[in-house]
Amino acid sequence: MADVLHHLTFPNETQRYREARNELLAEEMELRRHLERVAARRRLLPLGGEVPEDYGFDAPGGQRRKFSELFATKKDTLAVYSFMYGPERAQPCPGCTHFLDGIDGSMPHILERINFVVVAKSPIERIVDFARERGWRHLSFLSTAGNSYSRDYFGDSTSLSPQMRVQQEFKDGEEWDMPILNVFRRQGGPSGDTIRHFWGSEMLYVPPEAGQQYRHNDLLDPLWNMLDLSPEGRGDFEPKLVY
């Protein structure tokens, strides 16, 4: 590996730096290969369970939209992000908010390929007011206040097992909305379309490992990926709504 980039040197770098950098580069290449392997395995997942009902969501302007209506013509994949902004919260989750800050800018590109919506448990007017205040221009929002989507797809804690509640350090009687990205796939058939779950960001719920953060949406998150490239790393930084 040391010879592969023998010609690439930055001003005034030492041989020690170049040798260490090329060793790291070999690991970065292996990480790239591993990410490609994981992505390929994800694409090969068999389709999950059929969506149990055609959920009805509150949409802006007093409208109602069914789950089946969230699929545009010729786009059979739908990503749904559960945003931690339930009615019990005075303010939305800063982690979810910074994540959506980045996704909003990418949305015109994402929507060329797949469908994407953001759902939260607050009334739709409250969600839209915050989105407007935040300056989000491209995201689409729906409220799960009148359906069981959040419970069924772990956008809240109400269907977590007792063991999972202990692992997540929930107090007795405590319930929260939870952040998760779920991906669904529509398939046509002789009797009509069927919608099935494909993938969810379940890393949030795996057993904790020493020195590891959950990182359940890291592959989509420009903030954490940028900080990982800095000498300081992530440190103890936590996103805020206002700095």
Short description:
The chain has 243 residues and is α/β, with parallel strands linked by helices. The chain has helices spanning 15-43, 94-110, 124-134, 149-152, 162-167, 222-227, and strands at 56-59, 63-66, 77-82, 115-120, 141-143, 180-187, 194-200. It has two domains: 1-44, no CATH class; 56-208 and 215-220, Glutaredoxin.
Which helices and strands occur, and which strands form pairs?
Layout: H1 15-43, E1 56-59, E2 63-66, E3 77-82, H2 94-110, E4 115-120, H3 124-134, E5 141-143, H4 149-152, H5 162-167, E6 180-187, E7 194-200, H6 222-227
Parallel strand pairs: 3-4, 4-5
Antiparallel strand pairs: 1-2, 3-6, 6-7
